[in-house]
Amino acid sequence: MDSDKNKLKIVYCTRCRWLFRASWLAQELLTTFEEDLDEVALSPGSGGTFDITLNGKVLFSRAKEGRFPESKELKQLVRDQIAPNRDLGHSDR
């Protein structure tokens, strides 16, 4: 795998105490895409931010959507970018 192939970043608000949510989603993604993700980074932010980017492209923004992503939804968004033909099993139903 190319070392700079797929880098996912979760920027979370530290004042809102969203580290646990960010780390749980990171764990879910690393478990599902262990062969496909080269890096998953957690980045402290502020101002109520909770943004998820893949290779610099915004996949999900709490500010834009007005909510947090569901694990299933986030897995589908990542899959659609890095492995569009992959079956996610129960996450696709």
From TrEMBL:
PANTHER family: SELENOPROTEIN DOMAIN PROTEIN (AFU_ORTHOLOGUE AFUA_1G05220). It holds the Pfam family Rdx. It comes from the Bacteria. This is SelT/SelW/SelH family protein. Keywords: Redox-active center.
